[in-house]
Amino acid sequence: MYEKDGEKYYVVDGHVHIWDGRASNHKNVHGKQFIDCFYDYHKNLSPEEVVWDYDTYTYYGAERFMKDLFGEGYVDHAIFQATLLSDFYHNGFGQTEEAFGLTRQHPDKLTYNHAYDPRHGEAGLAQLRRDAERFGLKGVKLYTAEWHGDSRGYKLDEPWSRRYLEECIELGIRNIHVHKGPTIRPLDRDAFDVADIDKVATDYLDLNFVVEHVGLPRLEDFCWIATQESNVYGGLAVAMPFIHTRPRYFAQIIGELLYWIGEDKILFGSDYALWTPKWLVEKFVDFQIPADMPEYAPITTDQKKKILGLNAAALYDLDVPRQLRLPTQAGDADAEVAAGAGAP
Amino acid sequence: MTRMAVSVEAEVLAALSTVLDPELDEPVTELGFVRSVAIDDEGVEVHLRLPTSFCAPNFAYLMVADAYDALAAVPGAGRVRVLLDDHHDSDKINAGTAAGLGYVGTFGVEAEDSLDELRRTFQRKAHLAAMERCCRSVLASGAWTVEELPLLELFDLPEGRLKSALMRRREAIGLPNHSHARVMVDHDGTPVARSDVALRLRLATTTRVSIEGNAHFCRGLLATRYAGVDPAGSAPVVTNTRSHP
């Protein structure tokens, strides 16, 4: 919970990791390139006083994780998003067992989302059933751009992917987080293309599709699709830290999102440990659209409350303390086409 | 009459400045992607670099191939070499470009199609953003209203950077550039209907915001990535050891 100027905010960090990017876990040079790339993101977009040293960044473990999120970061609940990258790391990049172990210790604070890959066919479906039971999955995190054998990625509307999505409905997995953002290794295919979200969102209204990184670097494609689908959400991971380095650009991103998809479908995420939630939460609560950008309406306190936690709480059925709720429930997914289209 | 003497360095840099990042729609020279230019008696060798080692290989390939083509057109350049540094596919891209294999030839089974369609997608977005900038400028001047924009012609745009940028992008996607051509058109030249104009302008704004934001991000990441080795900034290191002028 974060409190400022008498207002209380329930905070859900919708995108966190415990990773191991140490040299001992690198399968090949790409393992090093990947964590180095993350470290550059971290250094480039963090305030100087919260930049970590490289060794801490490659592996920080559960204790530091708990301290940064729940001790100092105002987070009430956090959701692990799996990042396996088995081609780059011996024991995966995201640490499944360590993360899941923590969710067992703190079920009120943590949710674990695992991953699947529809290119694993029947065997993968069986694995998904086992994972759903073991982890109690409410959500999954998918990398449509990940390489697998001869395949350079897949589309959500391909036949096998549809079978997996239908299985998710059967298993009670409602939240499908899809990485549409900074690249893993797309090649011939434009892996940022969000058109596949459009097709499956229409066909599977029982599922919620959370587009992580709000489609950056293709914000416009995401907005256009999300505005037409009632079950498409935007995760702010990676977009958030611009609030420090490029506040005017952040104002444009959040202004566009509020216009196109509305205040009920935007979810906060730090992408920890890319960034720590403490400063992001503080700056977001203090943030306002600059006065010389009249094309965007000012952000209200209620909108900030929804984005910081109430929207995600609705998607994950989290029990928000009564004094932290809004009079009208957030996360109502019946918003109109182009939420801001009626505004001048 | 003798030909105006232009240094080979200037010609090489001018050629490189025509190479755009296909997504950011800005010259690689201005983005700091040109690390070094070495000119000697044999030819020209250029090293390119990118903000991360995980920049999409298709975009990386487009820039290397475009730089190669631009330099090959410089008279007297000699043997042209373009090398991409510090990318996870550097070796493959460098070898493929040097051998003139093309995209599919370079990546073999990993590439299913050529990159023309991807390039066109970004040329269309670049056009949309350029069109939006021009429309916003005439709206800001107070001479036009949003409802009137479907009637706006190239003739009505004030001469300057915004208009010439729009003209270049129209040419790239095959739109006519005569003075009475409409400004608010689809990428296939269809005029935007009056009933759609507000929404279409709004979507074009989002496209422009997206492209500009990505450019901020890439510049920042590049500066972070090379802060330790190249604190001088984004200007390429140019050396000329040619014994003849």
From TrEMBL, chain A:
Q: Which residues form the Amidohydrolase-related domain?
A: 12-318
* InterPro entries listed in its UniProt record: Amidohydro-rel, Metal_Hydrolase
Query: What GO molecular-function term can you cite, just one?
Result: hydrolase activity
Q: Which UniProt keywords apply?
A: Hydrolase
Any Pfam family the entry gives: Amidohydro_2
Q: Which PANTHER family match?
A: BLR3681 PROTEIN
Q: What is this protein called?
A: Amidohydrolase 2
Q: Which organism is it from?
A: Amycolatopsis methanolica 239
Taxonomy-wise, where does this protein's organism fall, top ranks first?
Bacteria, Bacillati, Actinomycetota, Actinomycetes, Pseudonocardiales
Automatic annotation (TrEMBL), chain B:
InterPro entries xref list: FSCA_dom_sf, MIP18-like
Tell me which domain of life the UniProt entry assigns to the organism this sequence originates from.
Bacteria
Provide the MIP18 family-like domain boundaries.
9-82
Coiled coil start-end: none
Pfam families cross-referenced by the UniProt entry: FeS_assembly_P (PF01883)
Please give the name of this protein. Answer: MIP18 family-like domain-containing protein
